[in-house]
Design brief:
- The chain is α/β, with parallel strands linked by helices and 280 residues long.
- The chain is built from nine helices and twelve strands.
- It has helices at 33-46, 66-79, 96-100, 128-141, 152-165, 189-197, 215-224, 248-261, 269-276, and strands at 12-14, 50-53, 83-86, 109-113, 117-119, 122-124, 144-149, 174-179, 205-210, 228-231, 238-240, 243-244.
- The chain has an eight-stranded parallel β-barrel with strand order 1-2-3-4-7-8-9-10, surrounded by eight helices. It has a two-stranded antiparallel ribbon with strand order 5-6. A two-stranded antiparallel sheet has the order 11-12.
- The protein is globular and about 45 Å long.
- The two termini are 25 Å apart.
- Bound molecules: (5S)-5-amino-3-OXO-hexanoic acid and zinc ion.
- Zinc ion binds next to loops.
Length: 280
C-alpha cells in the first residue's frame, strides 16, 4: 500500500500564500502576480515540483476572480515548470459556486477537501454534494485533484467518493494530510499514522503538512513514513523560534535538505507529473 511503500524521491509542494494571513501582518507574504512568479521560480530552484496557489487582489485580499486566477496560472507557467495547483478551498468566506468555477482557469491540479472542518473560529464548508460535484468536474475537465484531509472522517469519505465515482483523471490518487488546524486532526505523528492506516487502497501517493508549530515535526514524520512534503507560508510563518520566514524558498530549501538527508532527494517536475498522472 502507498502508506508503506517508500518513494525514491520526495515531491515537494509549496503553498506560498494561503488565504488567512494579511499582507499587513506579514509584509513578506507574496501576494502580487510578480511576487508569485518570482516565488515560483525560486521555489523550483530550491527543490519544489508543485505550487498550491491562493490568489490575492490589488488590495492583497483573497479573491477567486476568474481573470485573476487565469493570470496567476499564466504567471507561474511563464516563470517556472512547476505543476500548477489552484486552491478550490479559497477562504472561509468564498461561496461554493465561485469555488467550483476555479477549474475554468485550467490548472494542472486542484485541491479538493473531503469534508467540512471547524477552522479556528470559522468553518471551512465542504458539504458532501459539493465534494461530489467538484470531483466530477475535475474528471470532466481533466484536472488532477489533490484530496485534502483535515480529519480522519475525511479519509473515510475519500473511500466513499472513489467507490461511487471511480478514479480521478490520470488514474492516480494523491492525497495531502493537513494537520494541526484548530478543529482538525492534531499535528502529531500519531494522528498522521492513524490517517495513513485508514487510507483507501486506491491511494497511490500522499504528502503531509503541519500548520504553525507542527510544521517541522510533521515534515519529519512524513519523511520517516515515506511520504511527500508540503511546505510554505500558507502553513507556517516562523522558520525558527523568533525568526520569521522571509521567503518561501527558505522552507522549500530546508525541506529539500532534510529529504536529501533522508536519502529521498527532491523529485524533479517530470517525475512528479508521472506520480500524479499528469501528461508529460
Ligand atoms: N483557506 C482554507 C479555508 C485549500 O486550499 O483547498 C482552505 C484551504 C484548503 O486552504
Ligand atoms: Zn490552500
Amino acid at each position: 500500500p502507498a502508506s508503506a511503500s517508500f518513494a525514491p524521491n520526495t515531491l515537494i509542494t509549496v503553498a506560498p500564500t494561503g488565504a488567512e494571513t494579511s499582507r499587513a501582518d506579514c509584509p513578506d507574504l507574496p501576494t502580487t502576480l510578480a511576487e508569485l512568479a518570482e516565488t515560483a521560480r525560486r521555489c523550483q530552484d530550491a527543490g519544489a515540483a508543485m505550487i498550491h496557489i491562493h490568489v490575492r487582489d490589488d488590495q492583497h485580499l483573497p479573491t477567486l476572480d476568474p481573470g485573476r486566477l487565469r493570470d496567476a496560472v499564466a504567471a507561474v507557467r511563464g516563470a517556472s515548470n512547476l505543476i500548477v495547483q489552484l486552491s478550490t478551498g479559497g477562504s472561509v468566506h468564498d461561496p461554493l459556486d465561485r469555488r467550483l468555477a476555479v477549474l475554468d482557469a485550467e490548472p494542472d491540479s486542484c485541491s479538493l477537501t473531503m469534508g467540512t472542518t471547524n477552522f479556528g473560529d470559522d468553518v471551512f464548508v465542504n458539504p458532501w454534494p459539493f465534494v461530489c460535484e467538484l470531483y466530477q468536474r475535475t474528471q470532466e475537465r481533466g484536472v488532477v485533484p489533490e484530496f485534502e484531509l483535515f480529519d480522519l472522517g475525511q479519509v473515510a469519505a475519500l473511500g466513499r467518493l472513489l467507490e461511487r465515482y471511480g478514479l480521478p483523471f490520470g488514474g492516480r490518487v494523491h492525497v495531502d494530510f493537513v494537520l494541526g488546524v484548530p478543529g482538525g486532526m492534531p499535528g502529531t505523528a500519531a494522528a498522521l499514522a492513524a490517517g495513513l492506516a485508514a487510507l483507501p487502497e486506491q491511494v497511490t501517493s500522499w504528502s503531509a503538512t503541519g500548520i504553525g508549530r507542527t510544521h517541522l515535526p510533521i515534515l519529519l514524520a512524513a519523511l520517516s513514513h515515506g511520504g511527500h512534503l508540503r511546505v510554505g507560508m500558507e502553513d507556517c510563518l516562523t522558520f525558527a523560534k523568533g525568526r520569521p520566514v522571509r521567503h518561501n524558498a527558505e522552507l522549500v530549501g530546508r525541506a529539500a535538505e532534510l529529504a536529501t538527508l533522508a536519502q529521498r532527494p527532491p523529485m524533479p517536475v517530470a517525475q512528479a507529473r508521472q506520480l500524479l498522472g499528469l501528461p508529460a
